[in-house]
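Can't attach files on this board, so I'm pasting raw text. These are the components:
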Amino acid sequence: MMVLTLFLTFAKIGLFTFGGGYAMIPLIQKEIIEAHAWLTMKEFVDIIAVAEMTPGPVAVNSATFVGYKLAGVPGAAAATGGVILPSFVIIVAFATLFLRYKDAPAVKAVFKGLRPAVTALIAAAAISLVRASFVDIAGPIIAVAVLVGMLRFDLHPILAIVLAAVVGVVLY
Amino acid sequence: MRLLLQMFWSFFKIGAFTFGGGYAMVPLIQKEVVDTRKWVAGEEFIDMLGLAQTAPGPVAVNTSVFVGYKKARFAGAVAAVVGATLPSFLVILAVAIFFSEIRHLPAAEAAFAGVRPAVVALVAGAAYKIGRTAIRDLRGVAIGVVALVAITVFDIHPIPVIVGSATIGYFVFRRDFKAGVKPEPQASQNCGSLPDADPGLNPSSNPDAVCPGRGRSILETSGSGSSSAAGGPSRVENVDVEDQGR
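---
Top answer:
Structure tokens for the assembled complex are below.
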């Protein structure tokens, strides 16, 4: 029963959080901490800290953790599946329509206008990450090195992340 | 089956190395899906990112579902999304099992302090590569600048920015694609055997002309960057994946 409640609660969170990532935090907070009291605020802050240190979206990480705490591995699976399901269904619907109509002149025009905005969104993400990431002089140096490596020498992102992690362990 | 396994593995790698959530996944997906596997063309990848932004849920999850669905329909979408989320699922499960209370892990914190600036650079690099594909003329530059100001200065939510620029795009670029009415290679084929008919010549008036199961072949042909042979003013249409990958 708990497994089903977890699934439905996280499906609701998945359905109503647009923009991903930290946009999900207020809703998770409301559902998990206030409505269900499944977590304390302190535990939730810890989850966000861990989510930042581990791979994966915050929403997925929170779902897995809360699910496990309340109902073991089945709970973790139910909560994680729940948080993903709404996106999955909606994106499959989007993809079907997109693949069907993408060659229509009107659709092409729409996407030609949308693409510069996507560029702007990603550039804005990089800008906002700068604030959180550059704590000392090593930050900009690592960033410039990775940027040059990526654009000039086709450095693989995974290699860049592994190297940067090693540098981090050595430095900090 | 091989494609599904490949897709699972590609997104598993992407999921395992996405630190910082959200857009941190973009450079990895771009590298793996556009440059290495060539499952999606450069422009199409940007379109997917835009659509992924307008749907609820994490961008990374949405994009993986989109790519998976495009290459291998439902099974592909499942393989991609399971691959993308399994690493974080396992890591968090391990953390939850081995630490009764989540503690700060000094080694992980130090590693992440190094990774964070690298992620900034990777996302900035992805923005640059995407911009080279996405912005082809001054009108594109104008839309991009307005969008950037809207997001960073006025803190406007991504969805209105995307919907707004799509609307502007319709009016600004509409004339560019009049040439699309000329017969394109894919438009000349018929639905039955080679399900490639251009569905969009007049989507509003004849949605019934849509043939089921056509999608895959369209992707195969247009995904290689040769989607449109139409000449005229639409010089911006043919963008090679290789163009941005170097």
